[in-house]
Design brief:
The protein is mostly helical and about 200 residues long. The chain has 7 helices and 3 strands. The chain has one domain. It is about 50% helix and about 5% strand. Strands 1-2-3 form a 3-stranded mixed sheet, with no helix packed on it. The longest helix has 27 residues.
């Protein structure tokens, strides 16, 4: 898979681990991911999928932090969550929202099989142990789309590694984390929020 990576991603990672600020960034990132992926779908189905995606992406924030804690890089941890989302899109037949073709599902699973198996994640159960106790809101599926899938937003050929688009180049493995990452670069975080977290 090819994902973008810049200072905002590192700032979001740092901010997610801070008291007070963490919940702000979590909610902003959930909103961001829901909006971005809904824009890939036809307008007439977006609202029916919104609650499901909000719940799903909220759960993947826990996946992201767990992967970081287990030693995965920022790019790898984030890619893991995107793979989870693509499994979910596939299961619902939402192929127009997928980031890689359906015939690369197994390849992406195998790259992180150790992490996925540790946490009960499969293609059929994308959240595994990260599924919230209250579950995830349901949404209508379009299984007929799997018969002859058209995925205009999918890009194949990137299943053997994590590929990072820096805005200037595409590199395998990701970029090095900048020094002195400022959490206020994360979505929705203000200097006041950071000061409040430091006093928490």
């Amino acid at each position: 898979m090819k994902i973008s990576q810049n200072v905002r991603h590192f700032a979001s990672r740092k901010a997610l681990t801070l008291p007070v600020v963490g919940s702000i960034v979590n909610d902003k990132l959930v909103d961001l991911h829901t909006r971005v992926f809904l824009e890939k779908a036809d307008e007439d189905v977006r609202e029916a999928r919104r609650a499901h995606l909000d719940d799903f992406f909220d759960a993947t924030m826990d996946t992201y932090l767990a992967a970081l804690n287990e030693g995965y890089t920022e790019a790898e941890a984030r890619e893991i969550t995107h793979i989870q989302a693509n499994f979910d899109f596939y299961n619902h037949g939402w192929v127009e929202m997928m980031e890689f073709p359906t015939d690369e599902l197994e390849d992406h699973y195998e790259r992180y099989v150790d992490f996925f198996e540790r946490h009960g994640i499969t293609i059929d159960d994308p959240l595994g142990d990260f599924r919230p106790a209250g579950g995830v809101a349901s949404a209508p599926s379009t299984p007929e789309q799997l018969d002859d899938p058209e995925h205009p937003h999918a890009e194949g050929g990137f299943a053997d590694d994590v590929y990072v688009d820096t805005g200037e180049d595409v590199v395998a493995g990701g970029i090095e984390e900048p020094e002195d990452v400022d959490p206020t670069e994360a979505p929705g975080v203000t200097p006041d929020d950071v000061r409040e977290s430091e006093g928490a």
